[in-house]
């Protein structure tokens, strides 16, 4: 079986070119080979070979750095003495950020999903309603459906089997993955929605009736602002009486549930399996750890961070760090956990826990 290379190198870069585009300083006496060393790939330290670019950002990987055979490595000034002489050192304050910049230049096609059919234009096997409007340069893969009144901007890609509902608006240079469904939604420019995501379906709204539950009409929309990325199998419900909104530049991981009427600010980061109940308001630059859960009708202040697996049932002030279930200020949560562990050990001194 042949080895598949899913992302192809844009072109080889010299170490000096990598340093220039990332603002790195080349360690003295390194990186000026004749002919100059070329970077043709990226790799983790443990798997780095000639031609590869790596980064070192944690002392836990010292052993991997010692045996690494990569051509160049991003590294902090304080760690530069750890770098083997055979590797060209690229000195930066933030190795991970520098690696991201370099990899984006080396493999630009990995930044945004492309047509899974490796085609352009509208596939004959897609179904485009006559009343839909597609600007020039839109790609629609086989099996996709675009409903009446939908509008899709130039440069956008609609993946196979995706469903774009009536009157949906999708901006320019967006990438909509396979099997995505979008209804009752307005999507900005340069939005990425990965495979299997669901946007605009009914929110979970019911009222008690004499014979069970009465369904509450969900009359709002989903609004996704520019430069948002939404992970695979994430669900975003449309609003009931107001819009569900995801602010500019927000990044949402896979398997996240966002309920009706939620408002998410700009440049938030939400990790996988987070659940956000209805009518929450989340400020700009908030970070939510994986599997965190937010109760309905609460406010998370700007710049706050919620630890993984936390259960948040009350408002969180701007800039605060909360953790635990129920969530409380992070230092208090950590002290409580340490005290609990100490108590448990004291109760059973004869057993290792």
TrEMBL record:
Annotated catalytic residues: 260
All residue ranges annotated as the UDP-3-O-[3-hydroxymyristoyl] glucosamine N-acyltransferase non-repeat region domain in the record: 38-103
EC id: 2.3.1.191
The protein's annotated pathway: Bacterial outer membrane biogenesis; LPS lipid A biosynthesis
Annotated catalysed reactions: a UDP-3-O-[(3R)-3-hydroxyacyl]-alpha-D-glucosamine + a (3R)-hydroxyacyl-[ACP] = a UDP-2-N,3-O-bis[(3R)-3-hydroxyacyl]-alpha-D-glucosamine + holo-[ACP] + H(+)
Pfam families reported in the protein's UniProt record: Hexapep, LpxD
Keywords for this protein: Acyltransferase, Lipid A biosynthesis, Lipid biosynthesis, Lipid metabolism, Repeat, Transferase
Subunit structure: Homotrimer.
Entries under PANTHER family matching the protein: UDP-3-O-ACYLGLUCOSAMINE N-ACYLTRANSFERASE, UDP-3-O-ACYLGLUCOSAMINE N-ACYLTRANSFERASE 1, MITOCHONDRIAL-RELATED
Similarity section: Belongs to the transferase hexapeptide repeat family. LpxD subfamily.
Function: Catalyzes the N-acylation of UDP-3-O-acylglucosamine using 3-hydroxyacyl-ACP as the acyl donor. Is involved in the biosynthesis of lipid A, a phosphorylated glycolipid that anchors the lipopolysaccharide to the outer membrane of the cell.
Protein name per its UniProtKB record: UDP-3-O-acylglucosamine N-acyltransferase
Gene responsible for this protein: lpxD
């Amino acid at each position: 079986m042949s080895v598949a290379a899913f992302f192809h190198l844009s072109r080889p870069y010299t170490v000096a070119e990598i340093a220039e585009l990332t603002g790195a300083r080349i360690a003295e006496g390194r990186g000026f080979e004749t002919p100059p060393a070329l970077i043709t790939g990226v790799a983790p330290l443990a798997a780095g070979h000639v031609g590869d670019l790596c980064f070192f950002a944690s002392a836990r990987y010292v052993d991997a750095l010692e045996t690494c055979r990569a051509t160049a490595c991003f590294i902090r000034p304080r760690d530069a003495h750890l770098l083997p002489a055979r590797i060209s050192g690229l000195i930066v304050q933030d190795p991970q950020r520098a690696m991201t910049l370099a990899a984006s230049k080396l493999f630009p096609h990995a930044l945004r999903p492309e047509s899974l059919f490796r085609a352009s234009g509208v596939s004959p096997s897609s179904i485009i309603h006559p009343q839909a409007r597609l600007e020039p340069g839109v790609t629609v893969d086989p099996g996709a459906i675009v409903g009446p009144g939908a509008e899709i901007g130039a440069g956008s890609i609609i993946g196979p089997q995706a469903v774009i509902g009536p009157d949906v608006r999708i901006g320019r240079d967006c990438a909509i993955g396979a099997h995505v469904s979008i209804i009752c939604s307005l999507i900005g420019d340069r939005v990425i929605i990965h495979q299997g995501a669901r946007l605009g379906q009914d929110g979970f709204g019911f009222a008690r009736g004499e014979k069970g539950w009465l369904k509450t009409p969900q009359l709002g929309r989903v609004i996704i602002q520019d430069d948002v990325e939404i992970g695979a199998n994430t669900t975003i419900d449309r609003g009931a009486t107001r819009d569900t909104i995801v602010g500019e530049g927000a990044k949402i991981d896979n398997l996240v549930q966002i309920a009706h009427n939620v408002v998410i600010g700009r440049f938030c980061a939400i990790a996988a399996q987070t659940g956000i109940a209805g009518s929450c308001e989340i400020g700009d630059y908030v970070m939510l750890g994986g599997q965190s859960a937010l109760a309905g009708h609460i406010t998370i202040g700007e710049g706050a961070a919620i630890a993984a697996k936390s259960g948040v049932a009350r408002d969180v002030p701007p800039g605060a760090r909360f953790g635990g279930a129920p969530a409380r200020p992070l230092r208090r949560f950590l002290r409580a956990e340490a005290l609990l562990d100490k108590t448990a050990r004291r109760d059973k001194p004869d057993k290792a826990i």
